[in-house]
C-alpha cells in the first residue's frame, strides 16, 4: 500500500472493507527472482528454475506475460504440477502452505 509492503491482518482487512477507497491503494506483490531469494528459494541449474525443499518454481513466458509455475515432489512419488500459474506472492504462499503445511518464510522488507 502506497509503495510499502505489509501483512494484511484481519483488522486491516476490516478497515479496508469499511473504506473502499483504500482498495485502489493496495497492489499485490509480484513474484520475482528477488522475492524467491528472500523466501529462501535457491536457483537451479535450469534457467528460470528455483527450489525450496520439495517445491519447485519455474519462470514461464506465455504470450506477452510472465508467470511462475509451481511443482512439488512428495517422497517416493512423481513430480506433480499444480494446475495454475501464479503471478503474485500471496498465491505462492497459499500453494506452498497447501503442499507443505508450513508458512512460506517471506520477508519482503
In short:
With 109 residues, this protein is an alpha+beta fold. It is 25% helix and 27% strand. The radius of gyration is 16 Å and the shape is globular.
Strand content: 25-35%
Rounded average pLDDT: 78
Number of domains: 2
Distance between the termini: 13 Å
- Which ranges are low-confidence, i.e. pLDDT below 50, for 5 or more consecutive residues? none
**DSSP E strands, number:** 5
- This entry's quaternary arrangement is single chain
Mind describing the biggest β-sheet? 5 strands, antiparallel
Count of helical stretches: 3
Strand order of the largest sheet: 1-2-3-4-5
Helix content: 10-25%
Overall form: globular
Structural class: alpha+beta
Q: How much is the radius of gyration in Å?
A: 16 Å
One letter per element, helices H and strands E, the order comes to: HHEEEEEH
Amino acid at each position: 500500500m502506497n509503495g510499502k509492503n505489509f501483512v494484511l491482518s484481519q483488522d486491516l482487512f476490516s478497515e479496508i472493507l469499511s473504506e473502499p477507497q483504500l482498495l485502489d491503494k493496495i497492489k499485490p506483490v509480484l513474484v520475482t527472482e528477488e522475492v524467491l531469494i528472500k523466501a529462501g528459494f535457491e536457483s537451479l541449474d535450469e534457467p528460470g528454475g528455483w527450489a525450496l525443499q520439495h517445491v519447485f518454481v519455474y519462470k514461464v513466458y506465455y504470450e506477452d506475460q510472465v508467470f511462475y509455475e509451481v511443482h512439488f515432489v512428495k517422497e517416493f512419488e512423481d513430480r506433480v504440477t499444480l494446475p495454475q500459474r501464479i503471478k503474485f506472492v500471496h498465491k505462492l504462499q497459499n500453494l506452498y502452505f497447501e503442499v507443505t503445511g508450513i508458512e512460506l518464510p517471506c520477508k519482503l522488507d
